[in-house]
Amino acid sequence: MNLLKLSWSYLQKKRLNTFLNTLLLAFGVGIIIFLLLVLHQAEEKLRNNAQGIDYVIGAKGSPLQLILNAIYHMDSPTGNIPLSEANAIARNKRLVKRAIPLALGDSYRAYRIVGTTHEYVDFYQCKIAEGKLWQKNFEVTIGATIAQQLGLKVGSKFYSAHGLEDDEDLAHKDHPFIVSGILARSGTVADRLILTNIESIWEVHGQHDHHHEEPVTHKEHHEEHTTDSTHTENHHPFVQKKEPVAHKEHHEEHTTDSTHTENHHPFVQKKEKEITAMLIQRRSNMAIVMIPAIANRSNKIQAVSPAREYLNLLENIGIGADVLQYFAYIIIGIAGLSIFIALYNALKEREYDLAIMRTLGATRLKLFTHIILEGMLLASVGAALGLLLGHGAVEFTGQMISHSSQMSITGWQWLTAELGVITLVLGVALFAALIPAIQIYRIDISKTLSR
C-alpha cells in the first residue's frame, strides 16, 4: 500500500478545502519571506554604506534626513554649509583621519550627480571597469547600475537637471558632462551615482568665486602638516591656500569688490563656497566628544553619527515589520486550525473506509501515518508556494523601484532563516494532524462496521 499516493488522492477529492488551506499557508509564508528578505537586504546595505563613517557634517536640520541624503542618497539635502566651517573640522589631524566633501544638487534621469574627490571611490573600494576616474571639470565616472540602466558608455555626453527631476526643460544645456569611466559593481551606493569633481558642481551653479577655500582631503591634510607653509595647490589640486594674516579684512574686501577676479577663474562669486556635506572618519576616541562639540558652536552646521541614526531607522522600520510579521503568523495559525478541521471532518467521513482497511491488513501505525502524511503534504505544498510567492514579490518590488530608489533589492537571495519558517509551517501541520491521527489509531473496527 502506497500511503503517499493514497494521502494525495484523498486531498484531491477535497479540492476546495485543499486549495483554501494551501492558499492560507502560502500567504502566511509569503509575507514572512518577503519581510525577511527586504529587511535583511535593507539592513545589509544600510550597514555596508555607512561602515567607516563616524560623522557627517551638514546643515542644521533633521539628523536622519542628513544621513539619508549624504550617505544613502535617498532624501533631499538639509541645505548647504560653508566650506570653511567644514574644513575647520577636517584640518584637525588629532581628531580626523579622513574627510570626504560632497556637493549635491543635480541629477541625470533621476540618478544623483555627486561632486567629491577620488577618495570617495577609494573609501568604497570601487574598481574601474572601463575608462578612468574623472580628471577635469565636467568629466564623470558612473556606477555600474547607471551604465546598465541608461546605456551610457565611455565618451557619452549628457546634460544634468536641477534636483532629481527628469525634465529636459530643467537641464543645464550649457554644461555637458562627459563619461570618462565606469565603475565595476561594488554592491554599494556608488553603483547608482554619477561622480565628478566639486568644481563642476560649483561651475554649473555659477559658483566661480574668488575665495581661496578648497575642500580638505585626507591626503592633503597629511601633507599640510608635514610640509612648510610655502606648499601650494600646484602640488595637489585640493590643497588649502594660505590666507593673509588679516583674514577677516581680506574676505570683507574681496566679497564687496565686484571687480576682483582670479587668474584661474573667469567668473566672480560674491559669496563663500559651499558644499552639501562632509563625511568624517575619526582618528581617536577623543573625536567622539570633540567633533560634535566643535560643530555645535556654529549656527550653520551639525555633526551627526550615522550609527545612532542607523539604529533609530532600523527601529522605526522594525515596528511596522513586526506588525506585518505577527499578522503573517496569525495567518499560519489559522491555516493550521483549518487543516485540523479539514482532517477531522475527513476522518468522520472516511471512518468506515478506514475500518475496512484495518480488516484488510492495514495496521494502526499505517493509518496513523496516512493521516499525518495528509497534513504534511498540505503544509509542504503551501510552504513551497509561499517561498515562490515571497521571493517573486521581492523581485517584482525590486524591479519596480529600481529606477526611482537608491535602495536595490532582489528576490534571488536565499536566507538560512527561511528554513526556520518552513520548519514552523511543518510543525503547525504536524500538530494539526496529530489529533485526527490519534483518533484513527484508536478506531474500534467492530463498532464502526456495525454502524
TrEMBL record:
Q: Which UniProt keywords apply?
A: Cell membrane, Membrane, Transmembrane, Transmembrane helix
How would you describe this protein's topology in the membrane? Multi-pass membrane protein
Transmembrane segments in this chain: where?
A: 20-39, 326-347, 367-394, 414-441
Q: Which residues form the MacB-like periplasmic core domain?
A: 18-200
Q: Which InterPro entries does the record cross-reference, listed alphabetically? A: ABC-4/HrtB_transporter, ABC3_permease_C, MacB_PCD
Q: Where is this region: Disordered?
A: 207-268
| Record GO cellular component, one term | plasma membrane
What protein is this chain from?
A: Efflux ABC transporter, permease protein
Indicate where this protein is primarily found.
Answer: membrane
Domain of life of the native organism: Bacteria
A Pfam family it matches: FtsX
Provide the protein's localization: Cell membrane
Q: ABC3 transporter permease C-terminal domain location, by residue?
A: 327-444
